[in-house]
Amino acid sequence: MAVEFRVLGPVEAGITDDADGSAGGSLLELGTARQRCVLAVLLAEANRLVQTEQLVDRVWGEQPPQQARGTLRSYVSRLRTALAGVGEVTLARRPGGYLLAVDELAVDVHRFRHLAVEARASEGARALALWERTLELWRGEPFAGLDSPWLSETRALWEHEWFAAQLDRFDAGLHCGRHAELLGQLTALARAHPLDERLASQVMLALYRSGRQADALDHFRQIRERLAEELGTDPGSALQQLHRHILTADPATAGPPTSMTGGRPSVPRQLPAAPPLFVGREKELAELTAALHAHVETGAKVVISAIGGGGGIGKTWLALRWAYQQTARFPDGQLYVNLRGFDPTGQPTTVETALRGFLDALGAAPAEIPADTDTQATLYRSLVAGKRLLIVLDNARDTGQVVPLLPGTPTCAVVITSRNALPALTTTHGARLLPLDILNRDEARRVLTEHLGAERIAAEPAAVDELLRHCSGLPLALGIVAARAVMHATLPLTVVAEELQQAAGRLDALDVGEAELSLRTVLSWSHHALSSEAAALFALLGLAVGADISRQAVASLAALPVARVTTVLRQLETAHLVLQHAPGRYRMHDLVRLYAAELAQSLPPARREEARSRLVDFYLHTAFTAERLLEQARRPIELGRPAPGCEPHALGDVSAASAWLDAEHANLLAVQHLAVEHGWHTPVWQLAWCLTTFHYRRGHHQDLAMWQAGLTATQRLGDPAAQALAHRLLGGAYSKAGMHAEAVSHLTQALALAEQAGDLLVQAHNHFALATAWEQQGNRQQALTHATCALRLSSALGDPVWEAHTLNAVGWYEAHLSHYTPARAHCERALAIFGCHGDRTGEAAALNSLGFIAFRTGCYHRALDYYQRVLSLRRDLHDTYHQADVLEFLGRTHQALGDLDRARSAWRRALESYRTQRRLEDADRVQRYLAALDGQVPAVPGE
């Protein structure tokens, strides 16, 4: 006999003849709805202690009855009676709460998750069978008939898990050829989730494999229109690729589908999309493969292939084509960087920037990335050591830009593209050079045939010959010519050839070494084929800075509505002048970008300045909104109104703000540089201010350049107040980066400026920052002195929130100096003030201080409660950097209470976070804690 607990439906407990419940049985009487709610919470947390207060909150919500604890004890007693004699099920009271000990596989939600993990690790028919067993456990709405805020939230989360499992089952079924059987279920679910692109791809694939190609294409049309109408976006690249495959009846689509599951990959996959149409280059592809084989046979240090050739010759496409052919040889992933060695609108990518991108992809945390390039390169080589990685360094300017990015391990391979030959790589690193020439005439003709079709090519042989002559085998030129002809299917190719001839001679500075290969001819002709609105937008894009640009930023640049910009950008995409490399984000090929920049220079100077001003204001005002969402209690700076035509991006909450800053961080740095170049000093320092909280919460402690530029800008403005702010925040950045002398110097200058101005609040801020700087150096007495000064000043100002911050700081330093009684009083006052004013950042800081005090004074249960509340707040604030610190102290507190399993769990999570953030000293310390747990009696670890 066995017991089966069900919560994926009505909360029930049944006695069954077999452990899997297959032989039927009888249901247990579990009492009232509220009593079953208690059981539901304990089942959801099976084998884990649920604190009494937590259980009360989950069962009754924010307004429990006056005798909730007594009622809870009664419910637990009745449940214990109902479960008596059932088997290995124990409902026990533990210090601080209750624990339901049970075989997790007897609880349907835990069995659901167990089977889902097994299914995701399986393949083929076994995976499908496991998914079907998994979903059989779902018997309706979770916790049916019960309700509380926690149950509602958990129900929604579990329904998301069910939805993801359904999609995984559909993938497995489609892989096994069950498309006809699944089609009805797929279409029904798609009606309920009309914007889900993964589900749409499954419907399209099932329709196509059922012989309904037209219906599959119509389904794509429907979701594309709905996405545009409701979200203002286009389908993602995976869905668009499937659409192309169905449109062309690609044989690969008849096989197993490509998974579109989300989530961050476990290995870096940075390669841009593979070339959609690739012709020729068989000899070069074979040479790259031969170099790889020779490397394996000779045991060379690392295989390096350098593809050389002029602009537009197809170096990147060849590198990517070969890279995708070889992905199976490199299971640890692929790294890619565009080094922009010949970027016509800016400087080449610096070695530091390239290394930073690689380190981020390899899991290095911003906070622990060294400041100097040599040490960054050392860390990079350490992270790739022993891994089978393919590294593509695209568009390198010279050998010096490449060498720091080369790994030292023989398991890696490197492919480099450059317009320069890079002969030094051959002598110093044994690179194999592969010069790339233009396509021969047959290959070039095949390119046009692939795009335009054999019938159209055969109909006008003379015009085709003329096109081939003007394109001269240059892949980029051939692609743009083909795009023009495809856009105007009724236009005779003779007319296309004549237009190409008439536009000759406009891009002479960017030929590829032969006079007849003028890219200006092709690009200007493509530009003139655009509508006037698209042509104007294309020219304005030549003013944009950064690696890419969002749809919203383009709208402000052009002073157009976002919906209209989306339509115009689609025209530029069709003409191969921009690429939407991610939903709503666009970039241009270097050569196309140069041509756009040339066009921009022909605009009236006033129009250029207005467009640049709108662009800077877009980033500044959106970043300001993001900063205010991240830290509402911070005293804001004053911004002017955005330039006319600028519409900053609307951000709804902290999550949206964090996501936008993550996506736009590099562009924000580039925009600040643009403002520096144009002498727009005010937005220079204001942009730095807007990123302060983001840098703090992401651990970007090495990103000093923004405030270095900000300080210079304030000095040129001659604004003492702004200078004081810049000195203070630059000093804080130096302090977090471990550059203590520089930190104290700038903070002292900031304090002097504030004292000269008689600004007591700014003086308080600077004393507060000096306290932090001295704490970083280990001088807590000096830190307490400055914190006390900050408190004295803030108390006289009538600013309760800022006074609370200084109260907490004083308490924190007092606690570290073992003055626990005044420390607790100061921090409790701070917490009360923060609570009254809704300052969640302040609450987290004060609770953290109180947790430390409780821990140091042996009040471990109180410390546990404080730290759990801090962790919840840090998560809500998206403060990833400080969550690890809280987890470490949670582990220490659990250990002090003798709960070694929970201590181990918290420390493992802290260790994972520290390692992800590359906080090596912190990780080593926690690793020692974990190692000491084996055979250890409960004890409080030392600091």
TrEMBL record:
Q: Which UniProt keywords apply?
A: DNA-binding, TPR repeat, Transcription, Transcription regulation
The TPR repeat ranges on this chain:
724-757, 844-877
* DNA-binding residues: 3-102
- What are the GO BP annotations of this UniProt entry? phosphorelay signal transduction system; regulation of DNA-templated transcription
- Domain OmpR/PhoB-type, by residue range, is 3-102
Pfam families given in the database record: BTAD, TPR_12, TPR_7, Trans_reg_C
User: Is Transcription tagged as a keyword?
Assistant: yes
> Which SUPFAM superfamilies has this protein been placed in?
C-terminal effector domain of the bipartite response regulators, P-loop containing nucleoside triphosphate hydrolases, TPR-like
- Gene3D superfamilies on file: P-loop containing nucleotide triphosphate hydrolases, Tetratricopeptide repeat domain, Winged helix-like DNA-binding domain superfamily/Winged helix DNA-binding domain
Q: Name one GO molecular function term.
A: DNA binding
Q: Which family does it belong to?
A: Belongs to the AfsR/DnrI/RedD regulatory family.
Name under which the protein is recorded: SARP family transcriptional regulator
Its source organism is Planobispora takensis
